[in-house]
Amino acid sequence: MSGVAESTVSFQSRFARELPELAVPWQAEEAPEPRLLVLNEALAGELGLDLAFLRSPEGARFLVGNDVPPDAAPVAQAYAGHQFGGYSPLLGDGRALLLGELPLQGSSSDGDRLRDVHLKGSGRTPFARAGDGRAVVGPMLREYLVSEAMHELGIPTTRSLAVVATGRPVRRDTMLPGAVLARVAASHLRVGTFQYARATDNPDLLRRLADHAIARHYAAAAQAGNPYLALFRAVVEAQASLVAQWMLVGFVHGVMNTDNMTISGETIDYGPCAFMDAFNPAAVYSSIDTGGRYAYANQPVVAEWNLARLAESLLPLINEDQEKAVEPAVEVLGEFRRRYSDAWTAGMASKLGLAGHPAGSPEAAEVSQLVDGVIALLRDGPVDYTQFFRRLGDAALGNTGPARGMVLDLAAFDAWAERWRAMAPDASLMDRVNPVYIPRNHLVEEALDAATAGDIGPFQRLVAVLSEPYRRRPGLERYEEAAPESFGDYLTFCGT
To answer: How far apart are the C-alpha atoms of 287 and 295, rounded to whole Å?
Structure first.
């Protein structure tokens, strides 16, 4: 271990220390020729990491887990989960390691200011099952790209610090270049973590896990009359807000298993995911979601289902008499639909430039009808979701032609637009909430194909475009265009 790394990086190991039953000490697989592909300099600065070190050969070895500071305690985390509705009692980090926690710069080390540093693709662990524990360049760059795009859109998300090529080919359908993603998160606590702890029938472990989650994310819950019910309510609120934000930008997660739902309310695990091109409630972009369980329109329903599994796990903490715990847990779970609906409706009102009308007013009722009307227009034909809302911003200023030309039923659009414009939509608000640029699927694939072949340039350009998603810039027209017809049906893969 080099001296520069030791002086630059100092980890806490709070998860490993406080919850050893959920942490298996482990070491990353040796990478023969680690080489930095992409580094998130802004995020590195927030974590107090030295850029010169991270760009050095020693830094590359640190970022794949081969050289870590002596205060780091790399562990593979244990968790369970419902995958496509079927329960797996033991999943865990099969190809990942938690190095530890770092405080954000300018903050104390209080839980809500800590950030996990987590490696993905670092080799087999005891949870690997039949997998090789490795990852390849394309999927790791996808996670970097989409997670950072989500961050710039203002949606809570895990983030990406770096992608490092390992120098080892990995067999998938063909031989592909291997890579490790260094991911940063408020924590990696999942609904599946609580399911695992509950299944151990160890009340002390479950309580310590809940206390750990409260300290990391929801400190106010500790002061509530029932801290564990307050924890559950906080997660319900966070997830209702998060999924509404996904829906508002047309994001389809693809694998909403309970092990992919965080307690913090951050988006996690960008494997089979995509942003919708044409609006389609049944949109599915995951190669393994053959039944459409995690389709675009199903995401709020699945989120509520996942939260019910969290409630089941927390029952012994909510009340020692679990029969008495059911009623308050169900009551809190019942808040999800209202909170989701409120977040969705408020978000759609903003997308239409009609925010600020108090609930129960005649104006709010009209806005609700206009929201229903615009969804009906989108359902009626293949309308590019992102382009349409951005062009409505022009319509708010009087130029209805571009948006009108995207729909099939012109009479229906004209009738809707007359009512909408009578409400005096705020075009500047619309431009602040309706992105010009999203990670369009054909551009993502173009960038990943080039990077896999050794040309990182298209990827870096796409990341730069997505760093300012709401500001239209000259010369970037191709980045806001819909996919060509030749692109065809689109599926994504998890990369394992």
So the answer is: 12
Residues 141, 43 within the same domain: yes
Residues 170 and 307 in one domain: no
Instruction: Round to whole Å and give the CA distance between 185 and 215.
Output: 15
> Is the domain of 235 the same as that of 101?
no
Say how many C-beta atoms besides its own lie within 10 A of residue 1's C-beta: 14
Domain assignment present for residue 407? The answer is no
Whether 259 is a known active-site residue: answer yes
Catalytic residue among 67, 93, 259, 431: 259
Query: How many structural domains is the chain composed of?
Result: 2
Structural domain of 89:
3-187
Distance of CA 404 to the CA centre of its chain: 33
Query: Please, what is the Cα angle at 221 between 215 and 224, to 5 degrees?
Result: 140
- Calpha distance 456→141 (Å, rounded): 10
What gap in Å lies between CA 398 and CA 375, rounded to an integer? 21
Mean pLDDT by 10 residues, the chain (496 residues): 54 96 98 98 96 97 96 96 96 97 79 91 95 96 98 98 97 94 98 98 98 98 98 98 98 97 97 94 93 97 98 98 97 98 97 92 94 96 95 97 96 98 98 98 97 97 98 97 86 71
369 belongs to a structural domain: no
Q: Which two tokens stand for residue 31?
A: 């990478």
Q: Are residues 181 and 202 in the same domain?
A: no
Are 179 and 219 in contact by the 8 Å Cβ rule? The answer is no
Q: Is 34 found in the same domain as 148?
A: yes
The strand pairing partners of 183, in sequence order, are 118, 160
Residue whose structure tokens are 């983030």:
159
Tell me, what amino acid is at 217?
A: H
* Residues 182, 328 share a domain: no
pTM: predicted TM-score of the whole model, two decimal places: 0.96
Structural contact between residues 117 and 184, judged by C-beta atoms closer than 8 angstroms: yes
